[in-house]
Design a protein that fits this description.
Chain lengths: 311, 426
């Protein structure tokens, strides 16, 4: 709606922009316009249009075969009383806190550790970044083998004399969610580390020198130089983490499918299973809308605050 | 850079407006009803993506190819399942599909998406197919919509050499069965393997199906899955009471791995037996196949007519095909003994042909399986095939929860009924 009302606010602007094409000094060349409009059109057809459809479907009851039936806000009303949805919501928040929080902390920690140029440092950076290169589905297959009742993890526990801790990690409702977070974290840390490494590279060394001359301790340098300088990177990391948390799907689906009995269900897996397994595409779309609003809400509120601080 | 801005905004505004207009017009998900083009080869969309089954389908298509053109398109089973509604409702659908008869086909037949095959059933070998298959392939409106090709059976599979080593034999009654479990447990073997973890939680439904058809009978079972009874009824409760008797004998890791893993455990002698369909043999090494045998799921109430699970596989065609003659010719061929024998020869050979004259693989296991099915008074298909793929996840959740927390069965069944109602009312 903001887009629709925008021209009215702009209306006092004098006429030249509406005037004849190609006249006036500041005119955009057609080629540039094409470069902007063609991708926009492609985006509109392949992204905005399906997204709008999703919003419409959220208001319907649709089995994917017959024509969708309009039910208004019925799907959202059902959601309010849906225990599985509430559980999935709780798990998603837990996921956001554990997966997001730990990957940001550990990513920053490894970046600080590996920022100095020393011999062989490239090897460690590469090693930490390597999991990002693998497909998460392939990663999940490996971790599935690790978590098997006769898998590496249980054998390791046995050999350490901790046989009593042996566990069917993915089949137990108390451990399934955490067992799924670990592989996701294993991959995400490397990614966040690279983002922070890039941010650390951009900090002017003169700032550290000045701080040192003023007698600042290592912690003070970190707290008052590094962290404030990383603010813009933090915005990126936060967005990446929130989006990645809410769209985390592949690793959960390949390891547990949200089970056993919804104990590792996230909003994303619940959306997929209602839409494509239960064939309730209307309700699935309504879940997708909720996920969108959550992601958009968190990121937008952060960005608004960040910009306000910057002004 | 001030000049271009208003025009871009206007463009965006226009975009938003057209988007909204089109959205409101409601054409978003309307389905087209035009017929597809009539030239080119008949397309056969297959979900048989396991290597042996895929090769066998290629043999069948190649053999038919001498007579007319057909292009085989093998799709991964999970993709096929989720995409099937899209295929059938698209304007230019594939012509013929591998799928299941019964209530699964009925759901599409009710929406007029399947090609009527009455003529074909009246003129080809299909005339001589058994009465049970005949009614299985007839929709509720009385129209034939399906061509059955092969079927297989479920049973309690075990390794002959292991049973001999442990000095135990096949049980006939429920009490014999409990004795057998006791004996195996005392030898340090997990008596019953399951494999309801990983990506195959649906395997647990076999236990629900069998206990229900043994206790309440096949008729009640079908009615239950169709929504005519409730999952929190006392009849269903009886099923779980019986299940609790054998629960201590289940492999504690039964929900930790897929049925392929459970097969390995069974073949290695760490579990005693497993209620599974013959497809599990695909995951078994060839040399172990001769050592595999099975027995009938023990009878619990002799008054209940003997029913067995015998899922049937076959083909149906899209109602929107533009190549009707080619489609009927292909389906006619797939119904012949020749085509079914060819498929059995190429695949793992543990399925039985639907054609009355077609020869099966001839191994002792298959002969026993054929007799096993012929002795049954009633046949069921399997949980998802007697209901729908959409109902299956509700069973998976309920049954894995029961296996972990059998004491909470009351609330599990209430939840199951509530979830199932959402599917039935969708």
């Amino acid at each position: 709606m903001a887009v629709l009302t925008a021209p009215h606010r702009k209306s006092p602007v004098p006429a030249p922009s509406r005037g004849g094409r190609g006249r006036g000094p500041g005119r955009t060349p057609p080629l540039v316009l094409a470069f902007v409009l063609v991708p926009l059109l492609v985006e509109a057809v392949w992204v905005f249009w399906p997204a709008l459809q999703g919003f419409y479907l959220a208001l319907t009851s649709w089995d994917g075969v017959s024509a969708p039936k309009f039910v208004g806000l019925g799907n959202f009303r059902e959601m309010a009383g849906d225990d599985t949805f509430r559980g999935a919501m709780g798990h998603t928040v837990l996921w956001l806190v554990l997966f997001g929080g730990l990957s940001a902390l550990l990513g920053l920690a490894t970046a600080l550790l590996l920022q100095q140029e020393r011999r062989g440092i490239g090897f460690y950076r590469a090693a930490l970044f390597l999991p990002v290169v693998f497909s998460l589905v392939a990663t999940a297959l490996v971790w599935q083998a690790i978590y098997q009742p006769d898998g590496v993890l249980n054998q390791l526990l046995e050999s350490l004399g901790l046989g009593s801790l042996r566990h069917a990690w993915l089949a137990d409702q108390d451990t399934a969610l955490y067992a799924v977070i670990v592989p996701a974290l294993w991959r995400q840390i490397g990614y966040v580390m690279v983002l922070y490494l890039a941010g650390l590279k951009g900090i002017d060394p003169a700032l550290y020198e000045a701080a040192k001359v003023d007698g600042a301790s290592a912690w003070q340098r970190f707290r008052h130089v590094t962290l404030p300088q990383l603010r813009s990177v933090n915005a990126v990391v936060l967005s990446v983490i929130v989006i990645d948390s809410l769209r985390s799907f592949d690793v959960v689906w390949s390891l547990t499918r949200g089970g056993p009995y919804h104990s590792s269900e996230l909003l994303s897996t619940y959306m997929y299973s209602t839409a494509f397994q239960s064939l309730r595409l209307g309700y699935g779309s309504a879940l997708a809308v909720v996920i969108f609003l959550l992601a958009f809400g968190v990121i937008a509120s952060y960005l608004v605050r960040a910009f306000r601080e910057a002004d | 850079m001030i000049n271009p801005r208003p025009s871009r905004r206007r463009f965006l505004a226009g975009l938003g407006a057209t988007g909204t207009a089109a959205l409101l017009s409601g054409c978003v998900t309307s389905t087209s009803s035009s017929k597809s083009s009539s030239d080119g080869a008949v397309t056969l969309q297959s979900n048989l993506s396991a290597p042996q089954a895929k090769a066998a389908m290629e043999d069948v298509v190649a053999a038919y190819g001498k007579k007319g053109g057909v292009s085989l398109n093998t799709v991964a089973a999970e993709t096929f399942r989720t995409q099937l509604p899209t295929y059938l409702t698209s304007a230019n659908p594939p012509d013929v599909y591998t799928w299941y008869p019964g209530s699964v086909a009925e759901a599409y037949a009710k929406k007029d998406l399947l090609l009527g095959l009455d003529d074909l059933w009246g003129t080809s070998d299909l005339k001589r197919y058994s009465k049970a298959l005949n009614s299985l392939c007839t929709s509720s409106s009385g129209k034939k919509v399906f061509v059955p090709a092969t079927y297989y059976w479920w049973g309690m599979f075990y390794r002959k050499s292991n049973f001999a080593k442990w000095g135990v034999s096949e049980p006939k009654t429920w009490d014999d069965f409990l004795d057998l479990c006791d004996k195996l447990k005392s030898k340090g073997v997990a008596p019953i393997g399951l494999g309801a973890g990983g990506n195959t939680p649906w395997v647990a439904s076999a236990w629900f199906d069998y206990l229900d058809i043994r206790i309440n009978g096949a008729k009640y079972h079908r009615g239950l899955l169709a929504g005519q009874h409730r999952f929190d009824d006392p009849e269903v409760r009886k099923v779980f009471d019986r299940w609790q008797e054998v629960l201590p004998y289940f492999d504690p890791n039964g929900t930790a791995g897929a049925f392929q893993d459970a097969t390995t455990v069974l073949l290695n002698g760490r579990s005693g037996m497993m209620l599974i369909g013959t497809f599990f043999a695909d995951a078994a090494p060839k040399d172990a196949l001769d050592d595999i045998d099975f027995f009938r799921f023990p009878v619990i109430d002799p008054k209940v007519p003997l029913a067995e699970e015998a899922p049937t596989d076959g083909y149906f065609a899209s109602a929107r095909t533009g190549r009707k003659d080619g489609v009927l010719d292909l389906l006619g061929y797939l119904a012949t003994a020749e085509a079914q024998e060819l498929y059995i020869k190429g695949s793992s050979g543990t399925v039985l042909p639907c054609h009355p004259d077609a020869k099966d693989a001839g191994t002792p296991l298959v002969k026993k399986g054929r007799k096993h099915i012929e002795e049954a008074a009633e046949l069921t298909q399997y949980f998802n095939r007697d209901s729908s793929d959409a109902l299956q996840p509700t069973a998976d959740t309920a049954l894995t929860k029961f296996l972990a927390k059998p004491k909470e069965i009351g609330s599990i069944l209430t939840d199951w009924q509530r979830e199932a109602e959402k599917i039935w009312n969708a």
